[in-house]
Amino acid sequence: MTEYEKFKKLLEYFVAHLEFCVSDQKYGEGYETYIKEIKNFKRGGQGHKEQQIQNQVKDWESYDNGRICINVNPTTYQSGGTYLNWKHTAINVNAEWEDKKIINLKIMKDSYPLNNAKHVITKSVSDLGLFDKQEPNEQLITFFNQFNELIIQWNEKQISIQEMKQIQPYIDLLKSTKNIILTGAPGTGKTFLAKQVAKQLIGAKTDEELEESGQFNFVQFHPSYDYTDFVEGLRPTPPDENGIIGFELKNGVFKEFCKKALDVEAVNIQKIDDFSISGYEQYLNALGLNSKTINNYRLRIEQLLGTKEITSKSKIVELEIYKSLDEICDNLDSIKDFDDSNKMHRQFTSSVSNLINFRNSLLTNKKSASKAKLDFVFVIDEINRGEISKIFGELFFSIDPSYRGKKGAVKTQYSNLHNDEKEVFYVPENVYIIGSMNDIDRSVESFDFAMRRRFTWIEITAEQSAENMNLPNDIKERMLNLNKQISNTDGLNSSYHIGAAYFLDSNGNARQDIDNIWNLRIEPLLKEYLRGMPDNIDKIELLKNAFTA
After folding, report:
1. Where are the alpha helices (DSSP H) in 178-226?
2. Scanning 47, 178, 281, 504, which has the fewest C-beta atoms within 10 Å of its C-beta?
3. Are the beta carbons of 286 and 357 closer than 8 angstroms?
């Protein structure tokens, strides 16, 4: 029986039940088909509370997205207190009466309390084709689809609420401590959890929204990662016309991220909402640049627009004039070439780079216009695989929660190459750092105590990962049995547990192909754990028995 066929019978029963209770007439299609043969017929009851009335619809109660219950108030059959509903929800089907006959059925949502109910759709009994002994018609199919869509939305909302409850403690801890590290056995979903926390903190619903928010960045440390990648350093430039390669000072990924947070904050504080020359000047002021630098940056933009002339003692290659600020931003490479050709020491390039940052900051700020101060989340995966002191350098001081903001400002190692040698760098208070690491991965043992105390460490156990990733009970039991045996195996401990991620497919859904999970995912990992240990073959067999039992 299809869901539409079941639903049609359920609606027919609902109509027959109520009309019989109101009229007591023991004849008619509804009575003969549905009521007559029921022994110990229950006129009223609350199906959602598993009262006996639910047994009278048990053949038509179960659907892919939930269970529909019949709830009948025997004192007022014709009131809003009598309805069909998706169990555990306030999504109902109610009847509309004319004398002692039901003429319409209507879908209502948010029906608790009743005075809050919102109408969704109404269909007449005849339009729905009830009691016509035919296959479900298009009207009934539409009616069910709308009812079903509401429960899909409800379920998604409940999942979101549940996920929020699960990750709220991590969010609260991150907000209070600024820096956390998620640690645990492989496959416990540390990276996944870090992104979930970031999404909630930033207000993004999907991974795509998170990436496009401008408030999130993700890097993975490794043994070759260093200060120039993370903070700043000299990078080679493309060869010039003579094939000579030069070097230029460039921000690393973390410094650039912090700069973006400061840029957006500057736009936010000044309440700048227009992409204009005056807005650009306001933005530069908010960044704390000195007046001479601001005037010079503004002049260069005005010269690119053709509203001011360039004065120079030497002959210069002709400057291209642009029609708008957006066009200037879109031609940064050409402006770099102009700078280099005329030995302008990147004066125009610097001004345009700041203009681009201003434009991007406006866009980021407008995406989250409802928030007074935006949060920025920087995730460092495999944080223990890099040489931490080498990567962070003097930022040991600045990332400390007690020294966030200007009071923790430091000069970077390349400050002598800045346009302003007095320029300092600090980590804004609204930048949050989440690190993740596997307990058993000790490829680089340089996570010194000075750095450790600047992070709050949170262990994600395999059991927690099973809850976070909503593993079904049968898979969860296999995982727990396996991990219990791992803990009882000489040479292994809880750091070697198997997390829930090993049981999920690429879409995050639980897999049921147990043999493949063991053969392709778990057994090879366990063999690596046990390589070189005595009796490793016997130990693998014990682990397999625990998993498959």
Report:
1. 190-202, 207-212
2. 281
3. no
The 10 Å Cβ neighbour count of residue 459 is: 15
Locate 303 and state its tokens: 């010269």
pLDDT in tens, 150-202: 999 998 888 788 878 888 999 999 999 999 999 999 899 999 999 999 999 99
CA–CA gap between residue 106 and residue 124 (Å, rounded)? 8
DSSP state of 376: E
Separation CA 531–CA 549 (nearest Å): 24
CA-wise closest residue to 18 among 120, 91, 97: 97
Does the pTM surpass 0.85? The reply is no
Q: Are the C-beta atoms of residues 454 and 179 closer than 8 Å to each other?
A: yes
With beta carbons less than 8 A apart as the criterion, state whether 356 and 332 touch: yes
User: Count of alpha carbons within 13 Å of 120, Cβ hemisphere only?
Assistant: 23
Q: Which two tokens stand for residue 228?
A: 């120039």
- Give the pLDDT confidence of 43-100 residue by residue, as tens digits: 999 999 999 999 999 999 999 999 999 999 988 899 888 999 999 899 999 999 999 9
CA terminus-to-terminus distance, the chain: 35
* CA dist., res. 484 & res. 494, Å (int): 9
Task: Decide if 11 contacts 105 (C-beta within 8 A).
Answer: yes
Which of 320, 330, 322, 321 lies closest to 359, judged by CA?
330
List the structure tokens of 14. 């609902």
